[in-house]
Structures are given as structure tokens and as C-alpha cells.
Automatic annotation (TrEMBL):
Domain statement: Has three domains with a flexible linker between the domains II and III and assumes an 'L' shape. Domain III is highly mobile and contacts RuvB.
Gene that produces this protein: ruvA
Pfam families to which the protein is assigned, alphabetical: HHH_5, RuvA_C, RuvA_N
Species whose genome carries this gene: Aeromicrobium camelliae
Family that this chain belongs to: Belongs to the RuvA family.
GO BP, sorted A to Z: DNA recombination; DNA repair
Protein name: Holliday junction branch migration complex subunit RuvA
Keyword Transmembrane: no
Length: 200
């Protein structure tokens, strides 16, 4: 079991980072939130979970141990594999995910790609008593006003996109937001990355 990796970020893509550890480049699949914190050529520490299959060995990385722990916990629910677990943490931060499961928020869980109503109900049933104490009614990572634009822009340019491409993706994503909403930065970043991927 690889609990964490520490090394220099050698490459970044839309879905993964390559961290050089002891002369070996280790590909680590990451959520947009984690990728946004990494910088090419800079040292990084990622908390990891290794998923072993008959034909593959995949390492998933997270900026915080809490994210990694939630990634592993949700996979103990029936029908939840690593891809769905990663999608859950791409859409919801660990505390918000705990709150959604603990409070039985089916609609919140179904906002995650790959999770339908029955799947959400099953996750809640199986994990409600195992997610731990939920601290208050967290509101995710919504940012008021236009502050999210600079955060998303910095994250996209940090992933290697040009400032021009980043601005275009932000405008495309912003045009789809309902008027008067305070967007969640991680959700906006995910949508912007999707927009850039389609444009390639």
C-alpha cells in the first residue's frame, strides 16, 4: 500500500499528475481540486490510495489525507468503484460529502456523474452511520462575487493552459451559470476543464 508520494511534479494533465520519486515518474490520478494546487517543477506531497486490479495498478492522489480517507470509505458501499468515488470528491469536498450522506441528501449525491437515485439511496443507507460527526451545515466552497474567476484562472494556468484559453473557458462556463448564484469553485473548475478538453 502506497500511503503517500513526495517528489517533484514532472507533468500535469487534465486528470493526472506525474510525480518524480527517486528517479521514477509515478502517474497519479487526481481530482481537479488537487490538480489546481500543483505546479510544474515544484515539490508536492500527495496522499494516495492504490487500486489493484487483475490487469492494472492505479494510484489515486489527494491534497489532503481526509480526501483520501473519504475516497476509500465510499468505495465500501455497494456499486461504488474508484472512478465514481473520485467523481464524488471532484464535485463535493470531504466535509460536504459527509454532510450529504449523514443528512440523507439524495439530490446532492445524484449531482455526481454516475450516481442515480437508487445508487444515492444505497450509499446513504450503507454509510450513514460510518461517515463520522458532521460539523455544522457546511456550505461547500462557494465564493461570492467574481472572486472565483481569479481562483479558477490561476488553477487553469497552473495546470499549463494559456491565459487566453483559461479566460475563454471561464467565459464559456460563466455563461451557463444562473443569474445571482455564488458558484462553487471546484464545480466551476471541473466544468472549465471539460470545456477545454472538448476544444482540443
Amino acid at each position: 500500500m502506497i500511503a503517500h508520494v513526495k517528489g517533484t511534479v514532472a507533468a500535469l494533465t487534465v486528470t493526472a499528475a506525474v510525480v518524480e520519486v527517486g528517479g521514477v515518474g509515478l502517474q497519479v490520478l487526481c481530482t481537479p481540486r488537487t490538480l489546481a494546487e500543483l505546479r510544474l517543477g515544484q515539490p508536492a506531497t500527495l496522499f494516495t490510495s492504490m487500486v489493484v486490479r487483475e490487469d492494472s495498478l492505479t494510484v489515486y492522489g489527494f491534497a489532503e489525507a481526509d480526501e483520501r480517507d473519504m475516497f476509500e470509505l465510499v468505495q465500501t458501499a455497494s456499486g461504488v468503484g474508484p472512478k465514481v468515488a473520485q467523481a464524488m470528491l471532484a464535485v463535493l469536498d470531504p466535509e460536504r460529502l459527509r454532510q450529504a450522506i449523514g443528512a440523507g441528501e439524495v439530490s446532492t449525491l445524484t449531482s455526481v456523474p454516475g450516481i442515480g437515485r437508487k445508487g444515492a439511496e444505497r450509499i446513504i443507507l450503507e454509510l450513514k452511520d460510518r461517515v463520522g460527526v458532521v460539523a455544522g451545515a457546511a456550505a461547500g466552497s462557494a465564493v461570492s462575487g467574481a472572486a472565483w474567476r481569479s481562483q479558477v484562472h490561476d488553477a487553469l494556468t497552473g495546470l499549463g493552459w494559456s491565459a487566453k484559453d483559461a479566460d475563454a473557458a471561464i467565459e464559456t462556463t460563466a455563461a451557463q451559470l444562473p443569474d445571482g448564484t455564488d458558484p462553487d469553485v471546484s464545480t466551476i473548475l471541473r466544468d472549465a476543464l471539460r470545456s477545454l478538453a472538448k476544444a482540443r
